[in-house]
Amino acid sequence: MPVLKIHHIGYLVKKIEKAQKTFEALGYCTEQDIIYDDIRKVNICFLVKDDYRVELVSPAAEDSVVSGLIKKYKNSPYHICYETDDFPAAYDELTSNGFIAIDTPTPAPALNNCEVVFLSNAAIGMIELINRSRS
Known about the structure:
Layout: E1 5-12, H1 16-25, E2 29-37, E3 42-49, E4 52-59, H2 67-73, E5 76-84, H3 87-96, E6 100-101, E7 106-108, E8 114-121, E9 125-131
Parallel strand pairs: 1-4, 5-9
Antiparallel strand pairs: 1-5, 2-3, 3-4, 6-8, 7-8, 8-9
């Protein structure tokens, strides 16, 4: 298996500015302020504390990719993101071991347009994979 390094925990929130301020009150520092991702129709903000990075994700439209999730799960963590320098090998390894791609690799504006893909596994839920070789 190619090296997978944890990049962040994705945290679904209804009100991104309020969540950002609350995380800052817990000692997190805003690493990257709110960015609109027009591909997924979400607002995204990255915050860091110690060796941890949190990605706040909030739907920006009714047809956002997370609109259904926010209705079901409310404010909650919902994915772990891994980065790799060998995206094709990591993707192949994950899909051959029970992970199912729920979208296709597409650029992520909040991650310098690196390609990302979301995958799901019945045993652990959703993960995100970042292609660091194209950053």
